[in-house]
Prior knowledge:
Strand order of the largest sheet: 7-4-1-17-14-12-10
Largest sheet: 7 strands, parallel
Mean pLDDT: 80
Number of helices: 1
Helix content: under 10%
Number of strands: 18
Strand content: 35-45%
Structural class: mainly beta
Order of helices and strands: EEEEEEEEHEEEEEEEEEE
Shape: globular
Amino acid sequence: MVLSGNDNKIEGGVHSNADAKENGNNNTRVSGNATYVTNPLDISGSGAHWWTGATHISAVPWPMAFNIADFAPGGSRAVAAAGNYFSFTGDQVRNGAVNAGIYYTTGKWELTSVTVTPFNGRTGATFVSSGGLIDLKGNVNIRPYSGIPERLVLFTNWNDGKTGNNRCDAEVLKLSGNCNHFDGVV
């Protein structure tokens, strides 16, 4: 996990089965425990306290499992979302308000100043990528799509073409902007 932006906030704990890097400023707000696997911990930046006090542990199994095919067109989660499902091909950029729903792409997501508008009786948004990283460029304020009981907010199975023991060292979630706030499972 790489946190290079400023003034970011995550409600809940943070864990990385690989690197934990923080070089942004004033990233001090984590409401849960922080754990990481790869040594050494890489912290720099003014007021960079995200991983301060983090615990070095062994790799852990995923606390819950999601199948990327369930979010692809025709998948069980896509079908269940019905009119609140939005599918795209290739890299996608969102800037500004989006309707509540599941957003799936085969490329990467780049999100800037994203807020979610209730739609079809649902709230929140979940962004899924089957082929790229998810980059929060700044001022992203999202809660998980209300149709997913596990509270999933961001999900990618991208591994930058790496295999075996190296597949966990690719950047898949990047908080490169300032003032991001999300609540849910990443």
